Amino acid sequence: MNWKKWFWTLVVLDIAVVMLFAVWLFQPAKPISVPSPKKVKGATFTVYSNKEHLNTVINDYIRKKAKDHPVQYRVWLDDRVYVASKLPVFGRKMDLVVSFIPKVVKGGNVVLESPEISLGDWELPVTYVLRYLRKHAPLPDEVIIDPKVNRVYVALTDIRFGNGYQVSARKIDLAKDEIVFTLTIPTSAKQ
């Protein structure tokens, strides 16, 4: 074979790889259904917290839920909600950082909006990365990624802690370090 045939074979191979990557990247996402808030009957308490304490609780919960998964990540609250992981890219690990602005929605759940995403020094298209995370990240069932509207829904009221405790958000103001939740402890005694 002469060099022209090798050249055209390589061009066709490159085009095929790019097309396969594009098909994988642009495949449609499954429809998202946001659960309705669930109420637990019991004694309720208002809990005031800050970013430092909440960071500890969130990462402990994630560590337990994703302990055996190969993709590990951590979350921290600062001026925004940050999620960081390391992804293998061309044989080396690169930092993937996604940040959101949290918003409390009716019923005590949280929506993470206005995502910003970077891989190393590169800014990435939000929709494609959210699709990737939805497919490959070991997320708890209570975290729903919706790439069509570039948001993440956190169904706090569906999370059950020890003895069935339920948490719902009332206020999240990261700039003032004010985080307020309602903690409901189920009771079985009839009054």
Automatic annotation (TrEMBL):
Keyword annotations from UniProtKB, A to Z: Membrane, Transmembrane, Transmembrane helix
Transmembrane segments: 6-26
Pfam families tied to this protein: DUF2140
Name of this chain's protein: DUF2140 domain-containing protein
